[in-house]
């Protein structure tokens, strides 16, 4: 069975088309055994998205809709979908028609070659310049912090095997990051170029603060920032020792030399800022450990509609 997992946020005008076109494409490819797991991430649209998802579950026996009680974020909503998916092959898509169903044939053809994970990537993205810049920063960060191979290009359009899903859903922290979870599961990964379509309705729901929050989740999969703090400490300690020696030598050679109050204050402010920066970084790690020990949920399920539903109000 193929499970198509889709996080939904303000997608009442597009998600039905996504489901219908994807189902038609899977039928055309001869993949008749499939299900859709749709997760409404507590969309702030007066229940419009939730109503469409429930309608789809009532009309199609292969659609399961999960309604979250609070907004959990795209990656945590994906974790909810993965937890309730039953397929041996799982496909991740978006709800806005940019990850177009017509491109499934290329992903599945590559997946059939034996890879554990296949990503579709976009040689030409239909995002704004701001989003493209953010994507590039994310690409560099994942390469440096997690060690993603240089040649591997990723997106939110992917196909994975069930054993990958089984390991991924063991992660219970509320700071899920799908690339990090996939990369620490297997390195038998491929990527293929596909077409990126224009967003059909509205604009991206990612604000600057949401992008920064998502980017910060990379820290949960790397200790490189902490090591950087150590290295920066070493570097500035050496610079401080060298600077002190220079000042002592100059004072010995020129006893009348006045010591500079402004330069001293600048140095104090600079090094205080460095200390506070890395104290905040360490505090972020400790805070996430604290929330993890307190078992802060990734998501809270209010209701599930469709086949094989379970009791409402489940937490993960």
Outline the structure in words.
It is a single chain. This protein is α/β, with parallel strands linked by helices and 316 residues long. It has two domains: 2-221 and 296-305, Spore Coat Polysaccharide Biosynthesis Protein SpsA, Chain A, CATH 3.90.550; 224-293. It has ten helices and eight strands. It has helices at residues 15-28, 48-59, 74-83, 104-111, 129-145, 162-168, 178-183, 208-216, 224-253, 261-293, and strands at residues 2-8, 34-40, 63-68, 89-92, 117-121, 158-161, 189-193, 301-305. It has an eight-stranded mixed beta sheet, with helices on both faces.
Present the secondary structure layout.
Elements: E1 2-8, H1 15-28, E2 34-40, H2 48-59, E3 63-68, H3 74-83, E4 89-92, H4 104-111, E5 117-121, H5 129-145, E6 158-161, H6 162-168, H7 178-183, E7 189-193, H8 208-216, H9 224-253, H10 261-293, E8 301-305
Parallel strand pairs: 1-2, 1-4, 2-3, 5-7
Antiparallel strand pairs: 3-8, 4-6, 5-6
Helix pairs in contact: 9-10
Radius of gyration: 24 Å
CATH-level-2 architecture of the largest domain: Alpha-Beta Complex
Q: CA-to-CA gap between the ends? A: 24 Å
- Oligomeric state of the chains in view: single chain
Mean pLDDT across the residues is: 81
Count of individual helical segments = 10
CATH domain class of the largest domain: Alpha Beta
Number of strands: 8
Largest sheet: 8 strands, mixed
Following the backbone from N to C, one meets helices and strands in this order, namely EHEHEHEHEHEHHEHHHE
CATH topology of the largest domain: Spore Coat Polysaccharide Biosynthesis Protein SpsA, Chain A
Sheet with the most strands: spatial strand order: 7-5-6-4-1-2-3-8
In terms of DSSP E residues, the strand content is 5-15%
Overall morphology: elongated
Number of domains: 2
- Poorly predicted runs: none
**What is the helical fraction, as a range of percent?**
40-55%
Query: What structural class do the secondary elements suggest?
Result: alpha/beta
CATH superfamily of the largest domain: Spore Coat Polysaccharide Biosynthesis Protein SpsA, Chain A
